[in-house]
Structure formats: structure tokens, C-alpha cells
Design brief:
Elements (H helix, E strand, L loop, with lengths): L5 E4 L5 H11 L5 E5 H7 L2 H6 L4 E7 L3 H13 L4 E5 L4 H14 L4 E5 L7 H6 L6 H14 L4 E3 L5 H8 L4 E4 L18 H7 L3 E4 L1 H4 L4 H6 L4
Parallel strand pairs: 1-2, 1-8, 2-3, 3-4, 4-5, 5-6, 6-7, 7-8
Helix pairs in contact: 4-5, 7-8
């Protein structure tokens, strides 16, 4: 990966679209996020086609510890730079994922998803999670660190709280990035790219503001302007 701290979300339904975007964007970004849509459409081979060491594999494993142990080993065998599990799977599940992946590839980073950036306090309350998202994010990040994960996914609004809880070396990957004036889509807890970096994010995940632009490469180049 190069030094640009951006993973572009390749949330497209075909390998042709994904590889075309990767080709034009590779000089301008640090890597690519492969999520459920593309992975389910194309299978594991898309990771190799994009370039495994440039990939953040975003499948949010959440199952019993033994199942996630096997899935984590499989993700590590693909050679990806980063993959994630869901913190709501619990301490034992996260610990199993980290141990299993590192037995296969010690270079792969394993991070935990805290609270999706499509949630706000009202939608969390409907799920039985009381309080503001920041409190839940902080609690889940602490659990991820205890489980031995390398970091978490959180919105930029929670970076300060997670840094306070988990320290400066804990990897923070921040989605919900929207340049000033961009449409929010289904995101609720959003931040501009520059504000997210200034808050202390290590990596940003940016999708539609780049991939839906008429000039994706230009959108990537000017993301922090």
C-alpha cells in the first residue's frame, strides 16, 4: 500500500467494474475495501485480482467463536492487509479470530467493527442499546483491545474517546466520510476527510463520493482539498 491513508470502497456488483476502478484509482489511494456485495458476487478470487496486500476485507465476521476462527484463518490465507470481525460477537469470538489469523499470517491486521455509521442513538435504542453511540463504541473498543485485536472501525466522532480508552497505537479505521456538500446517503455519523484525519484516524474508508463521481481519479486527488 502507498502512503495515502484512504481505502476506496469497491461496493460494485461485478469484477469488471471493481478492477476498472482499481486501475484508475491505485495511484491516488492507499488501498481498496472489498465488502459483502463484491465478495459475494465474485468470490475470493477478486481479492487476488485487486491485489491482496492492498485490500481491507470488510466481511464483519459475527458467529460462534469456532466458526469465526475458521473464517479468520481463511481471510488470512488470502493475504489481505486488514480484515474485520464484529465486536458484538464478543470477547471470546474476537480472541479466536485474532489467534487463528496470526497463526496463518502474522502481518494481517484484525480489527473490530464497533457501531455502524448508519446508526444513531434512536436506531440503537430500537435494538436495545441505550445511550449515545460513543458510549457503546468506547465499550466495544475496550473489549477489542482486551481480545488482542489491532484496532477498530469507528466513526470520526468517536476517535477521541477510543484513543483515550485504547491508546495511540490502536489502529482506527474510519468510515462515514463525506466531503463538504456531498450527499449523506444512508450514513448518519459522518465527518469530512480532513476533519477525520485531524481527529486522529489512521485510515479512512471512502466509497460513493469517489466511485460515483464523474471523474473518480479527480475526486480521489482532491479529497482533502
Amino acid at each position: 500500500m502507498n502512503s495515502q491513508p484512504v481505502f476506496v470502497a469497491l461496493d460494485v456488483p461485478s469484477s469488471g467494474e471493481a478492477l476498472a476502478l482499481a486501475e484508475i484509482l491505485r495511484p491516488h489511494v492507499g488501498g481498496f475495501k472489498i465488502g459483502l456485495e463484491l465478495f459475494c458476487a465474485c468470490g475470493p478470487q477478486i481479492v487476488e485480482q485487486v491485489g491482496a496486500r492492498d485490500v481491507f476485507l470488510d466481511l464483519k465476521f459475527h458467529d460462534i467463536p469456532n466458526t469465526v476462527r475458521g473464517a479468520a484463518a481463511g481471510a488470512a490465507r488470502l493475504g489481505v492487509a486488514i480484515f474485520n470481525v464484529h465486536c458484538l460477537g464478543g470477547l471470546e469470538m474476537m480472541r479466536a479470530a485474532g489467534e487463528s489469523a496470526r497463526e496463518v499470517d502474522a502481518e494481517t491486521k484484525i480489527i473490530g467493527v464497533t457501531i455502524l455509521t448508519s446508526h444513531d442513538a434512536a436506531s440503537l435504542r430500537a435494538l436495545g442499546i441505550e445511550g449515545e453511540p460513543q458510549a457503546a463504541v468506547r465499550r466495544l473498543a475496550r473489549m477489542a483491545r482486551e481480545a488482542g485485536l489491532d484496532g477498530v472501525v469507528c466513526s470520526a466522532r468517536e476517535i477521541g474517546a477510543v484513543r483515550e480508552e485504547c491508546g495511540k497505537d490502536f489502529l482506527l479505521v474510519t468510515p462515514g466520510i463525506r466531503p463538504t456538500g456531498a450527499a449523506l446517503g444512508d450514513q448518519k455519523r459522518v465527518t469530512t476527510p480532513r476533519d477525520a484525519l485531524d481527529a486522529g484516524a489512521d485510515w479512512l474508508v471512502v466509497g460513493r463520493p469517489i466511485t460515483d463521481a464523474s471523474d473518480p481519479a479527480g475526486a480521489a486527488r482532491t479529497l482533502f482539498d
